[in-house]
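Re: the pair you flagged

First of the two:
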Amino acid sequence: MESPWNDRILQGVAETFNSAILEFCDQPTLQYKWLGYLPDKLIAGAFWSRLRPKIINALSDMSVLLSRSGASLKAPRDLRFVPFKFSDRNDEPLVKDLAEELYISSEYLSDTRYHDDLKELGVKNLDWWEFFKRLKADVKCPASRLKAPDTEEDWHTRVSSILLEAFPQHMHQQTKLRCLAFIPLDDGRWISADEGEIFLPDYEGIAIPTDLGFSLLNRRALKNTSRMSLLTKLGVKVCTRKKVVSRIRDKYQRSTSPNLTASVSHQRFFYWIREEYDLENDGKISLIDSHGEHVYRHRRGVWNTDLYFESNEEYAVQQLIAMSMHKPRRAGSSAPRLSVHFLHPEYIEGFGPDERRGGQSWESWLENVQHVRRDPRLVDPDNPSELSEIFLFIAKHRKEKLLGTLKTYWHAYVDLIEPEVAKKIGRVRVPCENGQDHPIMDAYLPELKLKMKCEELGLSSEWPFLKLPMILFADWRFLEEFGTKSKVNLQFYLDAIQNFHTGDKIWTVENDSKVFDVYEAIEDHAMVADHETIQ
């Protein structure tokens, strides 16, 4: 029966119960147990059925529930459940709570029977904005979980999935996200989407050089699909080829040239996108040699300052001029010191030997596009009718290597052999099999037929057969360009007569007979037009 007296009794019972709850909250063994003493929802009778609502209503505003840390008692309506989507794989909150705690203690959740009671008391689920506020605090915290290098990818996946809920329709949430400095860059910085353009670190599979002033995304973020979906919606994008190339070229217009690491990355990028050398824009682009010196190779439309590959091969420039590079100079050496630049080895390590772009290997591209040389320069760049300094050095100080050098690099030299150049090379003296040095133009190829004829005439030990290096399958007839002889012809017999008359032979009847044979051969080979030659 309802009456003022009965209402006061009901109110008194509720107040007494709630007072007891407060005492429970002060007891470590009871503070999590009191939910089990709440009146049953199915209590009999209309009168007593009003007791539970009175108790619940009062408890909702009372500090009777502990926060997750257990440090403070709070009113139920000021606490939140942390749903599955806001939890990590260990059922812990994805981000730490604030100083003004909101997460309810997990001790209340160990018994699922109390979940509905807690909801009735006013405990709600954590929402997006409440999560975002705590994530924002995490980003600013020195011990940020989001920024920690050892944070699991699963954690980033869960956080990104939550933040993606802002798209496409929740513009206010998107605005707040764009201001959050949670985007990792490759240089270690963390910035927001509103701080400028942010680019992916690669362009078509090649790393964008990191010294160009771009904000490039940290590569770790690329591995996570959810994270990349979020960052893409926030504006992270692919940088254009044109923009990268322009920035690279701009770097070389400044007074300070890029360092080695940057230079290698620039050339790697140019190779990957198959960028051709542009004389108008690339004249100031340098490469760095093995001593760290910047080498600018182009001047007045001519490739001027040469840069060579380092190599241990026999006819590599590095080996051919080694004697000019010793410090200190070897005793008795008359070889001048040459100023020759060799490409820094870090360039070679830019790609593996099997890499191909546009049908070219990395080294082939350096050779064909950036004009890094393998062959010693043959002619002077300012005067193509003169031999170059390095070739003259080889001719004078490494004459035993000259023929092998010509053979090794003939494919590069053949189109440069003008008549004046051929004459100059022909006059170079090289070692011959007779132990003497002879001009290339006066020497003979050691052909079998020639050797047999010299043997027949007794001239083998004195004849100027070229001392050729052992190069497999070599065809040496290209030396005829410089006057080298290879046939038993009129000139051969004329040289034989000259040899008989100037040699150190002891004159014998046998020699007399051989000389007679040579004169007969001259008669057989001579034409009217050869009169002056014979004279």
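Second of the two:
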Amino acid sequence: MRTLLIFAPYLLVPFILTLIFKKYKIKSTEWTYILTGLLILIYPFVTFWFDGLLNPPIHGPKCGNSQIGFLLANILLFLPISFIIQLVFNKIFLKKKIKS
């Protein structure tokens, strides 16, 4: 369940942004990519903050590699996947006409 909650924003953020742009009939789809990128880049820091609140850090030696790994995976793997998902949702729901 925790894994589902961790990975849900990578699918939900592009979907919700596309629905918001469709509802308000905003023609510029570039903002969906900009907002998706910003929200996905902020997401690891929000999860670290909530994790620090729910599970207070222990005193003594500890390893912070999991946070660095999650941050790098977010930037190198999940951010491009979110952009591809955003592209698919924009093509399905916004159907922007291409002028030839």
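The helical segments are 2-7, 9-23, 30-54, 65-94.

-B.
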